[in-house]
Amino acid sequence: MNLATNSKLKIIITLLLHLISKSTSSPTYLYNFCSNTTIFATNSKYHTNLNKLFKSLSSNATTNPAGFDITSAGTNTSDTVYGLFLCRGDQNITACSDCVKTATTTDLPKSYCPNRKVAVIWYDECMLRYSNESLLGKMEQSPKVFLTNTQNMTGDQTAFSDLLGNTMNSLAAETSNSKSGKKYATKVAKFTSLKTLYAMEQCTPDLSASDCNQCLTIAIGSLDVKMGARVMQPSCFVRYETYPFYNGATNFSGTPPLSSPSPSPDTKPVVNNGNGHRKFSDKIIAAIVAPVTVISLVVLALGICFIRKSSKKYGSLPPQIENEDFTTADSLQYDLSSLQCATANFTDENKLGEGGFGGVYKGTLSNGQEIAVKRLSRGSGQGVQEFKNEVLLVAKLQHRNLVRLLGFCIAGDEKLLVYEYVPNKSLDYFLFDPDKQALLDWERRYKIIQGVARGMLYLHRDSRLRIIHRDLKASNVLLDVDMVPKISDFGMARIFGVDQTQGNTSRVVGTYGYMSPEYAMHGQFSVKSDVYSFGVLVLEILSGKRNTSFYQSGEAQHLLGYAWKQWNDGAPLEFVDPNIRDSCSVNEVIRCIHLGLLCVQESVDDRPTMATIVLMLDSYSVTLPVPQNPGFFIKDRTGSNFGNPVWSDQSTSKSMPWSVNDVSISEMEPR
User: Fold this and answer.
1) Known catalytic membership, residue 471
2) To the nearest whole number, what is the mean pLDDT of the chain?
3) Which of 125, 193, 204, 228 could pair with 241 in a Cys bridge, judged by C-beta atoms 3.0 to 4.6 Å apart?
4) Residue 504 predicted with pLDDT over 80
5) Which domains does the chain have, with CATH numbers?
6) How distant is the alpha carbon of residue 5 from its chain centre?
């Protein structure tokens, strides 16, 4: 038997098993979470209401074509049970009903979560959850479950990562704005002539479009680049494979794996003190009836014919043409006249602020779109083409927690960057103003911390450029209309042409007070330099004070020293802003102080990565290590320029590596 025959036989056997397994009514169990802290007594009122809820959900699943239902059982608030089910968007009513029935009759009440007030269970076909609190319209990110294929992606991993990111992000927008009522969407994208990406995303339909998009964005940011992966959260899930895994998928381009994607051995699901199980269902098909076999073989025969036609159709396309990115720098270029008109010729009335790289102006284009235009200072040594290339790369970085770069303009000596306009100015506009601090309650501050962490994780790990920000601070965190944080000025070192090689730079770009000691004094930067800045920012958000404010008051040298003192004295809440001290979640606040101190440790190796930080913020199951002494750098004892953005050329000041040249400009107004 030759290799070609062997290959065809494997395809036939694999597809036969795949189709047969899909024809059975037993759902494929993936994972569950049950809270150990909320337990009800057998035959209690809550138990009775839960049984009523299960019956209601199971009954509704048999008649609901939308594959979603949310309801409650009970009239007394203390005993009411709230629940919902969400079936995968490609499942028919029968498959959906079978899945919900299995969850409500055996798996949740008997096998996995007996006597638990809060639980969620995932199958390949559906998800079901219940709680003693209302679920309607609430976007829940935790617990979060990661499942990945054990096979690594072969070929150009960078190109595949780019394709994956673009596909999943565009699909998130399509899913969240779906008009079908399901908030479900799929997408097929060609990678090479022999490899195709299949993607699926779904939210519970009760979420708003913005909450759905946020849930999906968070999940996408956690995906591993493998042959396939999925992330499941209570309010949404995302999945991709290199084989057609959902009903209605076309363009079959390879042999699907013989088993379901298995959990990555080095990735743990995020659970909060739960006892979830990580094994897949091991139910064995006991018998296969003849009609199913006959139908499956017919489908296989048709599939083989389709494969042959597809291979002829796609096999002749050169891979380099399929992977070509047709976006060019010229397509992002604006006319100077249109930007002058939009900003009233860069008048002071439209000026939003001034930074180390130049002024920022608000503008309105002729179509009514509001923009922010950064007018770069003329210190860049880059040529026009290099500048265009860097802008093109940075413009492709898109994340919910990053300000979007829309384009640029080059005209004579003018170099302008065009950004989306973010209406609520910057974090420091609220955080350090005694009259506006109260607008930032603890819930908002915690979401800002989480959002900034996810944005930085995208820059460090998930973006195509692996950006080190080098100037993360409160004035560079903008707030949109919903107070969602958006990091600005990322990639500016690349766009402006700052010299850098192998983590060392002759020009220090950043802001004293936020800069790590090794960067400020020696020009040594890394992702851990950004982690240090993030730690300073977290401590500022918690205290409502600027990093240098305590030096002036005489209470301590600076904010980090004060936080360290209160932590060691066993009085961490004394460090917290009085505006939130009495209404905050004490556990969350103390954990954030702990995390902030871990980020600003003097030893670079002791600081956590942004991936670890995001995990620490999302899960209480992660134990935080004991923090060591914070590292800090003080320019001088007068504090005259402490906290202002700097652009320091170390090559001219080797005896005093912290000296600042004349181009240092402080922020006039938050952007």
Assistant:
1) yes
2) 77
3) 228
4) no
5) 145-278 (3.30.430.20), 426-652 (1.10.510.10)
6) 45
